Amino acid sequence: MPLPIAPIAGVALRYGALALAAYAITRYSTPLRRDQRSEDAMDELHEGVHFRRDSEQVNGGARMKRTIRVGPAGPGIEIDASALGRIRFRRV
User: Are 63 and 82 in contact (CB under 8 A)?
Assistant: First the structure.
């Protein structure tokens, strides 16, 4: 029984074009600088999700810090994910 090549070729071309575009973007983009003030602000976040509301804006922050180990005393990796956000409403 012959394989239908046309559907497989279409999917392969689509994913190949996507991989080529991702490679080109990473190759020609310049790396961002690391801002120490924002690094310090993210390090000061407490774990969990927090919101603060002022008269003009809503600020939010979230942090998740986990350690994953292979075995009880095996090698591990620490995951520290944090995010800051701001929504501002202004009448114009």
Answer: yes
Residue 1 has pLDDT above 70, yes or no: no
Is the pLDDT score of 81 beyond 90? yes
- What is each CA distance from 42 to 14, 34, 53, in whole angstroms? 38, 13, 19
Give the DSSP H or E segment for 89: none
Q: What are the strands of the beta sheet with 57-69, ordered from one edge?
A: 48-53, 57-69, 76-88
The answer on pLDDT for 5 being more than 90 is no
**CA-CA-CA-CA torsion sign (44, 47, 53, 56):** positive
Provide the residue type at 1 as one letter. Answer: M
Neighbouring C-beta atoms of residue 52, cutoff 10 Å = 10
